[in-house]
Amino acid sequence: MRPRPLRLFSTVPFVCLLSLLGFPDEGSPNEVGRPAERTESVHLVLDLGSSGTRFCMYPVTVDKGQDQKRCRVTSVSPVCFKLSGGIAALVRGHSQEEVPSLILPKLRQAWEALGDVQKKGNPQLRERIQGVVALGTGGFRSPSTNLPDERREFQAVWSEIARFFKEEAKQEQVVARTISGLEEARLAWLGVSQQIPATVRDSFAIIEVGGASIQFATSGRSLAYQDLYAASEYRGQDYVFHKFAPPRGATALGFDACFHPEDRKRQDGPACMAFLRANVFSGSSINQLAYHFSPRRLYGLGAPWLGIFADYPAGPPRAIKNDPAYSPKLSPGNLARLAEKVCKLSDEEIAAFAPNAFDLRKNPATGEGSGKACFTLSYHAGFLESVAMISQDAALLPGGDDQWARGAAVTHEFFPDC
Predict the structure, then answer these.
(1) pTM of the complete model
(2) What is the CA radius of gyration of the chain?
(3) What is the per-residue pLDDT for 199?
(4) Could you tell me which residues come within 8 angstroms of residue 246 by beta carbon, excluding any fewer than 6 positions away?
(5) DSSP character for 315?
């Protein structure tokens, strides 16, 4: 019998411990029984990420039984409005008094857009909002602990968000705070569970890539929320890139295999993956946790993963990928070979088969691309390789880019009706 992974975490740094904390089995696909009463509501979740901000209205059904209440996101797609740029980066280093003037225009812009049909909003949904939750992720956490950073300007952000939604948006129930990496991981797992049919009983796992942190979560012997195992580390894509190629300073020795846009011939996919394996993914608590579970469906979450699913061909032959639909799956081997191929190519050569790749988009200020395609693909190939032992059929499946927010929309921790 394989050992229970709980013992792993007493000595591993940067780890969020397992969430066996007595949370109810909310939103679990194992639910049975016929509810006594069903109502509908709309929950607004603000995803304050490290590189962007998203406001999403989720239509939710609330099943009220004799002993408990459960929420599920309906089949109706959420209505979202996105703002570029992270709030944490916007306010960092400013005084508490300056924060309202920095973020209030963004809050008003997003709130108005949610009710504006011309901006793809839905005034009927906005009128039915019963509760607002604003949650900060990696950008609001400390790099040394992956726990909430309590600096004063961040506290001012939460105070201003609460004031705006209570006083200007007339919402009575508002929660605004930073979530830990562990919370983000288990909420992401719960978000995926909302989209899995109740007839599917086998467990699944998620890996998520953000700008600042990476997350992993899966369940143990059942699909119950109490049986959820999760880990999070401050090793996100943007954090890793700026650690080894800082905006000011020399690029780390060996990292030019991942990023050298001036001379693409010096970029090398296998060498970049080896560098990341040794300096980023080696000793990861996520790898060690994944090792202790049998193979299961593995979902890749977050905009970076979905960009690869949507923008690049999943495997050879490398036919042009113009269709924005997600590839049905990715394999570690195919992704590693794609990274090896892309690292040596110019932007024009990459565009010949992946014209929509995010890392080829031009910067309006300079007219140049980011030149990070080699690093992006090598990073994701390395991450997938590190957890490949848990993936069923050696495949990664597309899991969505709003899943932790979807999970937050149905948990009692934020919405008492759930």
Answers:
(1) 0.84
(2) 21
(3) 67
(4) none
(5) S
Look up residue 408 and give its two tokens.
């937050």
Q: What is the dihedral of CA 196, 199, 205, 211, to 10 degrees?
A: 10
What pLDDT was estimated at residue 223?
Answer: 65
Candidate from 81-95, 209-223, 262-276, 287-301 with smallest mean pLDDT:
209-223
Q: Annotate 224-254 with three-state secondary structure.
A: CHHHEEEEEECCCHHHHHHHHCCCCCCCCCC
DSSP string, 121-160: --HHHHHTEEEEEEEE-GGGB-TTTSSB---HHHHHHHHH
Average pLDDT value for residue range 52-73:
86
At 414 the three-state DSSP class reads coil
Map tokens 């490290």 to a residue.
50
- With beta carbons less than 8 A apart as the criterion, state whether 154 and 169 touch: no
Tokens in use for 39?
A: 């109502």
Cα separations in angstroms, 326 against 303, 304, 378: 12, 13, 19
The dihedrals phi and psi of 168, each to the nearest 5 degrees, come to -95, -35
Q: How far is CA 193 from CA 206, 322, 383, in A?
A: 10, 30, 23
Q: Which residue has the higher pLDDT, 30 or 270?
A: 270
Question: What pLDDT shows up at residue 363?
Answer: 54
